[in-house]
Amino acid sequence: MNLGIQKVEALDAGHFVRVEWEDGTESRYPCVWLRDNCQCPHCFLRSAGARKLVIKDLDVNIVVKEVTLPDRKKIAITWPDEHASEYEAEWLKKRCFSEEARAEVRDDLFLPERRYWGSDLQLPKIPFEEIMYNDESMYKWLCTLKKVGIVLLTGAATRQGELVKLGHRIGFLRLTFYGPTWQVQDKADANNVAYTTGKLCFHTDYPVLQHPPGVQFLHCIKQTAVGGESELVDGFHVSNKLQKQNPQAYQILSSTDVDYTDTGVDYCDFAVQCKQRIIDVDSRGQAVRINYNNATRDTVFDIPAEKVRPFYAALKEFDDLLNSAEHKFTYKLKPGDVVTFDNWRVLHGRQSYQSGPEVTRHLEGAYADWDVVMSRLRLLRKRVFNRD
After folding, report:
1. Is 336:220 a contact under the CB 8 Å cutoff?
2. Do 280 and 288 form a contact (C-beta atoms < 8 A)?
3. C-alpha–C-alpha distance, residues 260 and 209, integer Å
4. Per its UniProt record, what PANTHER family does this chain match (predicted)?
5. pLDDT score for 132
6. Pick the CATH number of 125-385 from 3.20.19.10, 3.60.130.10, 3.30.70.2190, 3.40.710.10
7. Cα dist from 382 to 34, 158, 283, 386, whole Å
């Protein structure tokens, strides 16, 4: 972005600054925003990339006293109190308030593009060792994870501890009441339905937490010969289908607070309670997180009695869509496979398998937060492509 500035002027009695670029386009900047974001050492701590100016010292009705163009690469502003600010052209251009410019920054920072899928999923695969030692492969993994919601890493060692290494590669893992990692296998007096040999219905993990883990890792260390197949469904794709098929059901699931509970002892003793909407939506009504785990849905239901049956009808319709043949993808993990998926989007399940005197199936699991994953993705993009 090497665009220069052709002209600069104050508008609207000094409340806006208009920048005309060399390519003929223009940008308008509110003066209160410009003053709030002065980049001088008095107002901005460059070593931390943090604002020092406090809101109580900001005049929300401020106007420029003078705006000039020292050269094509920056503008200079003098404020009524004689404070001086300079703004680089590239810095200004990136922060243009036009819808197109704002959309470009959103796409660049948050990678909102989604590729929906159903039973036709072509499961993306990358060798585990590649992402551990190759930044380009790791960047590809995390971008695909964000866009598709799932990536299978292949060829990991069949021992515990590989997910800890993966966590260090990203940054760090999410600690929960089940520990930094946890072992999915048949256990006596299981404190979680996953620690049995029974079928697991489609669910997201940990909606009982106020902020459920964003990304889940499952490393197959040992696999049973019969049964134990994994099942996946794209919750965002299905919620879109529900919204079109039955808007009222979608509205119920995206507005009703559902109680979740989890009590027991593992990494430490715990008694967790939370309220979540089955489908969390943003300001546009678009699904941004699925919070659905039938095993930990509480018997307490804090809604009026007359709203209970309509809720169950909506939930049943959503669950039927999740389990329909066109939406469900089934596969079987092999020892050394590490499935990585978006726990806010992808619901997972498991077919039952036979119990025996020895452990016949063993997965190690772990979580990471999307904040950590996206942080690593942005750092990798800068390192691999030299992009800020």
Report:
1. yes
2. yes
3. 9
4. GAMMA-BUTYROBETAINE DIOXYGENASE, GAMMA-BUTYROBETAINE HYDROXYLASE-RELATED
5. 97
6. 3.60.130.10
7. 27, 33, 30, 4
Residue 387's pLDDT is what?
66
Q: Domain ranges for the chain, please list them.
A: 5-110, 125-385
**Residue % of the chain over a pLDDT of 70:** 99
In the DSSP assignment, the letter for residue 70 is: E
Q: Where are the alpha helices (DSSP H) in the chain?
A: 31-36, 89-94, 99-110, 128-133, 135-148, 162-170, 235-245, 247-253, 308-322, 370-385
d(C-alpha 134, C-alpha 126), whole Å: 11
Token pair 């329909």 in the structure block, residue: 324
Beta bridge mates, 18: 9, 28
Assigned CATH topology for domain 5-110: NE0471 N-terminal domain-like (3.30.2020)
- Mean pLDDT score, 297-313: 98
How far is residue 115 from each of residues 149, 163, 238, measured CA to CA in Å? 8, 26, 13
For the beta sheet containing 200-203, the strands, ordered from the edge strand earlier in sequence to the opposite edge, are 200-203, 346-350, 230-234, 329-331
Q: Token digits for 209?
A: 């937490």
Alpha-carbon distance 28 to 93, whole Å? 10
- Token readout for 56 is 């109580």
pLDDT at 388 (0 to 100): 60
DSSP secondary structure, 249-268, as one string: HHHHHTT-EEEEEEEEESSS
> Burial level of 356, CB count in 10 A (0-12/13-18/19+)?
exposed
Rounded CA gap, 316 and 1, in Å?
51
What pTM does this model have?
0.94
